Amino acid sequence: MTGWIYWLDMVGVIVFALSGVILACRSRMDPFGMLVLAAVTGIGGGTLRDLVLGVRPVFWVNDPTYLWVILATVAVSILGFHYIHRLTRTVLPVTDAFGLALFTVIGAHKALQLGSPGVVAVLMGLMTGVAGGMIRDVLARRVPMVLRQEVYATASIAGGTLFVMLSALQVPTALAVGLGLAVTLGLRLAAIHWRLALPTFAWVVTEPASPVPEQSLTPESGETPPTTRRRAKARVKLIRPGKRRGRH
C-alpha cells in the first residue's frame, strides 16, 4: 500500500472509529463499550475483506498502528465527551458517510492490487465500507443502515464501480481515488440532506370485507341466514419512500 493510500486508510479508521464512539454515547455505553464499537467499526470491514481475499495476517495484526489509532480516538473522545455528546445527532451520519467513502475506495484498491477481478473489487469495497458499520449497529441494537431504505450500499457500489472502471482505463490512481470518493460521499450526503430513500417491498395483508348473506339459502324458519366468509388476501406491495406502510 503506497504512502498516501496508507494515510487515507488511517483517516478512514479514525472517522469510522469516531462514528462508533458517537453511537456508543447515544446508547449510554461505558468506556469499554465505546472502545468495542470504535474497534469493530474502524477495522471490522477491512478484517472481513482480508479474510475473504486470503490475506494473512490481516492488516491490523501486521501493523498494530491501527489499534493505537483507535485507542487514541476513543481516549480523545472521552476527554471531549460533553462536546461530542451534543453533536451526536448531526455528526454521526456525516462521519459515517466519510468513513463509507474512504473505505469503499480503499477496499476496492486493495482488491485490485491483489489481482482480483473488477466485480470482486467492487464487492470488496462494499464489504470494507459497510461491514464494520453493520456490526456496530447490531451491537448497539439498531437496524443497520445498509438494511434500511437509506441510500447507503448504493452509494458505495456507485463509487466503487467508478473507481474500478477508471483503474481499468489506466487513469492515474490519485484521480481515480478522488472521483470514487467524491461519488460515494456525494451520494451519501445528498441522501442525508434531502432524505432520499429507496423503495421497499412489504408483505401487505388486506383485511376481508364484512360477511355477505347468501340470499339463495335464506331459510323459511326465520333463522339467521348463513354467511360466506371472505379470506384475507396477502400480496407483496412496493412501498414508496415516505409513504405510510400497510399492515405487514
TrEMBL record:
Keyword Aminoacyl-tRNA synthetase tagged: no
Cellular component, GO annotation: plasma membrane
InterPro entries, per database record: Gly_transporter (IPR005115)
Keywords associated with the record: Cell membrane, Membrane, Transmembrane, Transmembrane helix
Glycine transporter domain boundaries: 6-79, 94-166
Pfam families: Gly_transporter
Membrane-related topology note: Multi-pass membrane protein
Superkingdom field: Bacteria
Chain positions covered by the region annotation Disordered: 211-248
Stretches that traverse the bilayer: 6-25, 32-53, 65-84, 91-112, 118-139, 151-169, 175-194
Subcellular localization: Cell membrane
Compositionally biased region (Basic residues): 228-248
Protein family: Belongs to the UPF0126 family.
PANTHER family xrefs: INNER MEMBRANE PROTEIN (PTHR30506), UPF0126 INNER MEMBRANE PROTEIN YADS-RELATED (PTHR30506:SF3)
Protein name as it appears in the record: Uncharacterized membrane protein YeiH
Taxon lineage: Bacteria, Pseudomonadati, Pseudomonadota, Gammaproteobacteria, Oceanospirillales
